[in-house]
Structure formats: C-alpha cells, structure tokens
Amino acid sequence: MGVEIRICAEALERDAVARGFGRMPAALADPGFLQYIHSRFAMANEERLHVVYCDDRQRYLHDETLTIGGENSLVLRARPLVHRALTIGAGGLILAHNHLSGNCQPSEKDIVATHRLQKLGAELELTLIDHMIFTRDRFFSMAAGGFLD
User: Fold this and answer.
1) Shortest CA distance to 22 belongs to which of 53, 66, 65?
2) How far apart are CA 114 and CA 1, in angstroms?
3) What is the largest CA-CA distance in the chain?
4) End-to-end distance of the chain based on CA atoms, in angstroms?
5) Going from the N-terminus, what domains does the chain have, and what CATH number goes with each?
6) Is the dihedral of CA 19, 25, 30, 34 positive or negative?
7) 116: closest CA among 79, 68, 70, 63?
8) Among 2, 61, 83, 149, which is 20 to 30 Å from 11 by CA?
9) b/e per residue 19-57 (b: at least 16 CB within 10 A)
10) Strands (DSSP E) along the chain, which ranges?
11) CA-based radius of gyration for the chain
C-alpha cells in the first residue's frame, strides 16, 4: 500500500511540474527545469534514458523515461526513440541519462550514440538539442561541452 501511494504521489508531482513547463522553452539554463530532469534519476539504481520532446521552437511538449538499463550500461535504440518523437510531433529532443559511477563525463559509447542519433535526426528534421549526463550531484551538457554539431 505504501509503495502504491508513493508511486502515485511521484506521478502527480511529475505531472504538475510538466504542466508548468507546457509550451514554455525547454531552457537548459533554467534551474527548475534542470532540477526536474535530475529528479528523474534521484532514486535510480540503474542507468535510465529520459527524453524531453520539444516542438520546432524548442518548447516543451512531453517527457518520459524511455529506457532502463543496468548498473553500468544503457542501450540507446534509435528506432523507438524516433518513432515516439514523430508520434508526438516533436521537432527537437533533449536526451538525459545517468551515470551511477559518479563521473558525468560522456563515455566513448555516449559520444558515438549521440552523433549517430544526431545525424539520423537531421535527416528527419528532428533536432538533438542536447544530451545531458547526470550523476547524483552534477551534470554534463554535451551541447555545452562541444560534442554536438
């Protein structure tokens, strides 16, 4: 019973926060937005991929956890991600995933997967706005770090 209440409370909180972002720019400089994305990983004991779908003007449309991996890895499958983005009518994506190691620097696999998805997205007019990596107390923006074209 207690677990169900906690899950419902978390869902209500996510919904309320998401409604607050509705049609607003998904501003990576907004501490509230970053805190919201970071909260998606707060209780995670495994790597997770969270996606923020934006319209063509980079305004928030929807967000969700798309993939849950293991303790040290996560598989980014482009097909379900692109399918979901096109279904929602997104024009832009912000990817966020966590590193349980405490190191928020992108791995070689992170970089390769990001470039692959960025190229694929460009062909479909789907902009990869950023790919962010979170740890318990820090984050790294691949866009700010110069990893996106």
Assistant:
1) 53
2) 40
3) 48
4) 48
5) 2-141 (3.40.140.10)
6) positive
7) 79
8) 83
9) eebeeeebebeeeebbebbbebbeebeebbbbbbbbbee
10) 48-54, 60-68, 92-98, 127-134, 139-141
11) 15
Count of CB atoms situated within 10 Å of the CB of 3: 7
Placement of tokens 């991929």 in the chain? 49
The first and second tokens of residue 15, run together, are 């919904």
Q: For the chain, give the mean pLDDT.
A: 85
Give the predicted TM-score (pTM) of the model.
Answer: 0.82
Q: Find out whether 129 and 94 touch, Cβ atoms under 8 Å.
A: yes
The pLDDT tens digits for 40-67 are: 998 899 999 999 999 999 999 999 999 9
Name the 3-class secondary structure at 24: coil
Token pair of 31 as six digits: 């501490």
